Amino acid sequence: MGATDNRFPPIASYGFLSDCHTSALVSFSGSIEWLCVPRFDSPSAFGALLDRGAGNFKLAPRGVSVPISRRYEPGTLILETTWVTDTGWVVIHDALTIGEWEQQAGAGTRPRTEHESDRSLLRVARCIDGHVELDMECLPRFAYGAEAAEWSGGELGEAIAQSPDGVELQLTSDMELEIENGAARARTRLREDETAFCAVSWGDGDLGGPRSAPEALERLDSTEEFWRAWLRHGSFPDHPWRIHLQRSALVLKGLTYAPTGAIVAAPTTSLPATPGGERNWDYRFSWIRDSTFSLWALHTLGFDDEARDFMRFVIDVCREDPRLQIMYGVGGEKQLAERTLDHLGGYAGSKPVRVGNAAFDQRQNDVWGALLDSLYLHEKALRGTGTPADRQLIREQVEAAIAAWPHPDQGIWESRGEPKHYVSSKLMIWVAVDRGARLARSLGFAEVAGKWEETAERMREEILERGVRDGVFRQHYDTDALDASTLLIPLFRFLPPDDRRVRSTVEAIERQLTEHGLVLRYLVEETDDGLRGEEGTFLICSFWLVSALSEIGEPRRARALCERLLAAAGSLDLYAEELEARSGRHLGNFPQAFTHLALINAVSHVIADERRRDGGVTAVFSEMGGVREDA
Fold first, then answer.
1. Contact 411/476 with Cβ under 8 angstroms?
2. Where are the alpha helices (DSSP H) in 382-524?
3. Contact 391/314 with Cβ under 8 angstroms?
4. Which of 577, 587, 596, 593 is nearest to 266 (CA)?
5. Which whole number is the average pLDDT over 581-601?
6. pTM of the entire structure?
């Protein structure tokens, strides 16, 4: 792995803020180092995450660089940072503020979760002891750091930063502003119980940023109430690990683009799998692959409205064009052309920095399984809310999956090497046809169901014949290499968990595809993925191993690994995509939806194991995606 560049904070040390339209990352030094406006996938206004000269927004006491504590206000995505200086203590709260929650459903429209974003990033400081000198610097660099801001105003604590192409940020504060060298700066002294605030706002809304400290505190309170009210709608077990489930649920909600219900894979681009390496991708899009895991998690935790919104997003993009892509923009966009930003140095020197994702037009045959399993889980969870148009969609997509069966693809990991007959892709085509048959039978279409059941059985036979060597499932038909994606075999009920081939596969991966006990996707030296360099262990794969161990009746090993993974979280209980096993540092885009989804699945398995009385084969996921307590 590459050496650490000390100019960049560790990836896992960032705080994550969201208003369900966009997100911000806050470093431990009190600097906002990532903010794209107005959406997750917009160009950044603060981009120091990817180049130290690409813009930041800092608020911190003078003379200290490391706070004494950082945490989220319980049940929220409001970050609380406590600082101590030689003269006093100050607490800073950071939030992307949100207005009132409201539920809307009109005649002929889909039910959806609505809320009002203030389109504002708010920072409030309060001195709690002694006195503190506070410094603020707002230094935007638009268009991913390529364009300096032109400032106007500055009087009465209000200023406008504008890009050459007209993008604006409005800065409001109760501190006296000075505009110089492309930055707005302020300095103030707070005494005990005194507060100060600053906020940047964008868009065409009427609100803009707060104009007074009482208004700033009111917006902070309404945002806190929004997150806690939302979390109260969930259903969480009374267990010591409840906190991890709740934090993961908040992350998933924070990664949801409210206008459409899409869930982004991560809010960042080009955070590296290897510092200094080329495995740097833009994850600010919504993957169909994530849908089945998202539906499992959301229904399991009781968030049916969010599940419904995401399912509607998926169905809507499929209806617009039945030729299914692996990913879409958060507004349903299909063209996600990839380009590099060569003016950026990259996180810790990791280049190229990419925006867009060329994998959008890859052939990935697992996409139909994710879609059909999602439809199946959703129908069961909500007891048959599908429409005739949904049923037509099911028929179209099952037939598309069957047509794709003979063809190789790029696989679940989006390999940029030659297409192969990946076992996980074949598994997911089987899932598509199997779930389609179940849906057809439940809807009364017995003839179609029977036809698809026969097809699914032929597919199963081929996978077992060509995808298994020496009793172990392999990466693809023409290799002996292992792949962590085959851990999904028991989770998708392709074979029962007590089948010897399932156990042998789980144990082979645990033994041969791990580094310091954590799971790799595959061995790079055995896999033609079209790239150079190493990568870390994949956190989702390690959480899959927890679930798979639980499935095959190894609850102690499952719990031990789960405990280790929970302890490996960042200080704010957030996860990136990968973990460097020997150092514990997080790698890849952050925070990662896929990791938090797998955490919910794994923790639910371990809790279900604990609640069993007989210690036999673990609890299984029910047809609606939740865990039931008996196999």
1. yes
2. 388-404, 423-442, 446-466, 488-491, 500-512
3. no
4. 593
5. 94
6. 0.92
